[in-house]
Design goal:
By secondary structure, this protein is mostly helical. It has one domain. The chain is built from 12 helices and 2 strands; from the N terminus they run H-H-H-H-H-E-H-H-H-H-H-H-H-E. The protein has a two-stranded antiparallel ribbon with strand order 1-2. The longest helix has 36 residues. This is DMT family transporter. It comes from Metabacillus hrfriensis.
């Protein structure tokens, strides 16, 4: 019974993380217009590090051990460096709806890496639900005219692969180090290297950016870069990496919804139909069995 409650709580926390992440691309699209790729992509981590540093000092958290530090480097490479920087660059030329479709491949990437990094073995039912979700996303992509890849598309696809590995590694590490500690230490590892490039790209014109640009940047720094990951890694640690990762199939449609609200992008009937199919795949995947290897080598 306690295991079921833990899994349900994990799914709730995972959903909270997905909702928060769904505002990332719309917020990035707004902020990057006024602050530029480097400041938005890396500066959010520098700002988040101030908050995280205070929390770590107040709580007197112990430093990660060498094995944990190795995993944190993988988390930082994806969640702190790769995904924010690549998506900030891509959002300078791509509409949110376009990027959202490509980000929808995250559940498949996360589940795949979870097999290798966390020892999870999803059932056939799980993979069927993943295929349904992926095919739905591909159909939607073609509906949007996603026939020709641009460099910005390749950047987002690379970001998805890097973040998928980061999610799987972070979900695995969260069981050992603690959920919020994973992203907190990853931020602290990356932030010192970002201060110099961010400083070089700061201009006085940025001080005159409109309020919605500042709100978007602060959201990216505090919510997207830190608090959303706290909920997300907690959810994966409780509910299982592969199962909770299925919730990410909802993310592109939530992104498009928020883009409609904040960026005046439109929602079509086809979008609603595809969203319903994706919701079905998430429900199917949520109830699918995911087993674990009895022992996972510490070298992994």
């Amino acid at each position: 019974m306690q295991g079921e409650i833990r899994e349900k709580l994990g799914l709730i926390l995972g959903l909270a993380g997905v909702i928060c992440f769904s505002l990332t691309l719309p917020s990035t699209s707004i902020a990057v217009e006024y602050f530029g790729t480097t400041v938005v992509g890396l500066g959010r981590t520098v700002v988040a590090a101030i908050l995280v540093g205070v929390v770590l000092i107040v709580r007197k958290e112990k430093l990660p051990n060498p094995r944990q530090f190795k995993s944190l480097l993988i988390v930082a490479a994806g969640a702190v460096l790769g995904f924010p920087l690549l998506t900030s660059w891509a959002m300078e030329s791509l509409p949110v709806s376009h990027g959202a479709v490509e980000v929808a491949l995250l559940p498949l990437a996360t589940a795949g890496f979870a097999m290798f990094r966390a020892g999870e073995i999803p059932s056939l039912k799980f993979w069927i639900s993943s295929i349904i979700g992926s095919l739905s996303v591909i159909m939607y992509a073609f509906h949007l005219g996603f026939g020709q890849l641009q460099f910005a598309d390749l950047a987002i696809l690379a970001a998805v692969l890097i973040l998928g590995l980061s999610y799987a590694e972070g979900g695995k590490l969260a069981k050992d180090l603690g959920s919020w500690q994973v992203i907190a230490w990853a931020i602290m590892i990356g932030a010192p290297f970002f201060i110099f490039p961010v400083g070089l790209n700061l201009t006085t014109e940025m001080l005159h950016a409109p309020i919605h640009a500042w709100v978007s940047f602060i959201y990216l720094a505090v919510i997207s870069q830190f608090l959303a990951y706290v909920a997300w890694y907690s959810g994966m640690a409780m509910g299982g990496i592969a199962r909770v990762s299925q919730l990410q199939y909802l993310q592109p449609f939530l992104m498009i919804l928020f883009a409609t609200i904040f960026l005046d992008e439109s929602i079509t009937f086809f979008t609603v139909v595809i969203a319903l199919i994706v919701v079905f795949s998430v429900i199917l995947g949520k109830n699918a069995h995911v087993s674990k290897k009895e022992a996972v080598s510490e070298k992994n």
